[in-house]
Amino acid sequence: MTARRPTAIDIVEVGPRDGLQNDSRHLSTEAKVEMIAKLAGAGLRRIEAASFVNPKRVPQMADAEAVLARVVDLPGVSVSGLVLNGRGFERALAAGLREISFVAVATDTMAARNQGTTARGLVETWAGIAKRAEAEGLFRSVTIAVAFGCPFEGEVPLARVIEIARALAESGADEISLADTIGVATPLAVEERFAALSEAVPGLPMRAHFHNTRNTGYANADAALRSGVTVLDASLGGLGGCPFAPGATGNIATEDLVSMLERDRVATGVSLELLRDATLWLEGEMGRRLPAHGAHVSPWPRVLAA
Fold first, then answer.
1. Where in this chain does the record put each Pyruvate carboxyltransferase domain (predicted)?
2. Phi, psi at residue 195, to the nearest 5°?
3. Domain count of the chain?
4. I need a labelling partner for 51 at 20 to 30 A (CA). Which of 4, 15, 71, 154 fits?
């Protein structure tokens, strides 16, 4: 039995990080800063702005510090960065972040491709980072990647995901996210996995990260809300993908998610009109139309002439 939808949720905008990290078009530092400012202006209060990774592996994130120096103190916004190891954490700390995201991976093959270690090795890495982050007063968000399916190992046992979640929570976390990295989740799988997560780590806020690879991302987002999730990730324009997961495509689009939620009377605090404007601006920067629909349809409800 799933829970009713909440009356309000938080959206974490991941476009500046997940949206741009796998794209062949490299935005300038100035454009990234403008993108983040537009997102904050639209009402997004949690923005994942960069990742602290090897620039040789993910060149799109090579200017992480330069971007963060311009946006870390945006009023009313929690700007976060993705860290994958101790070195990344040191960089995040030096950049003045008050919130970090960490990715653990549910399979060894993906962990090796993404972070050069094993699933257990990532849990151990998090244990060291979590304690230091707590001492520094940082908000700690942990994501379990390929929680619904792996591009290399296929189906991922629920028991493995829950075992990892318990270990991550024991080390210290302020929220845990399950990520559908390659877009294979279904609403039933979402309900089952978040029900199990809620039972395994009772009281810990749950977050969800969906890709729309197979056009199920929005149905999965709704299923997550009905399952007790209070935070959803989304990316402006529907940009996104993982550099180390073959075939991974864009995240659910922020504007399309907000449109759906507001119609369902789930408050987001985000201006759909300003998101539309931001997407059209971003399409100009990227030189192409983006996957989201919201910027290219008439606003709703529309008042018809008598």
1. 9-276
2. -65, -45
3. 1
4. 154
Residue 172 φ/ψ, nearest 5 degrees: 120, 120
Query: DSSP assignment, residue 142?
Result: E
Look at residue 271 and tell me if it is in a domain. Answer: yes
In a domain, 273, yes or no: yes
- For position 183, which CATH number holds? 3.20.20.70
Instruction: Identify the three-state secondary structure at position 64.
Output: helix
pLDDT mean over 265-269:
96
Q: How many helices (H) and strands (E) does the chain have?
A: 10, 8
Cα 272 to its chain centre, rounded Å, is 19
Tens of pLDDT along 119-132? Answer: 999 999 999 999 99
Q: Residue written as tokens 């709703």?
A: 300
φ, ψ at 81 (rounded to 5°): -140, 150
| Separation CA 61–CA 63 (nearest Å) | 6
Q: What are phi and psi of 13, to 5 degrees?
A: -80, 115
What CA–CA distance (Å, rounded) separates 155 from 184?
10
Round to whole Å and give the CA distance between 209 and 145: 9
Give the domain range for residue 246.
Answer: 10-296
Contact 82, 47 (CB under 8 A): no
217 belongs to a structural domain: yes
Q: What is the pLDDT of residues 166-187, one digit of tens each?
A: 999 999 999 999 999 999 999 9
Q: Does the pLDDT at position 277 exceed 50? A: yes
**113 domain residue, yes or no:** yes
List 119, 130, 242, 245, catalytic entry: 242
pLDDT at 22: 83
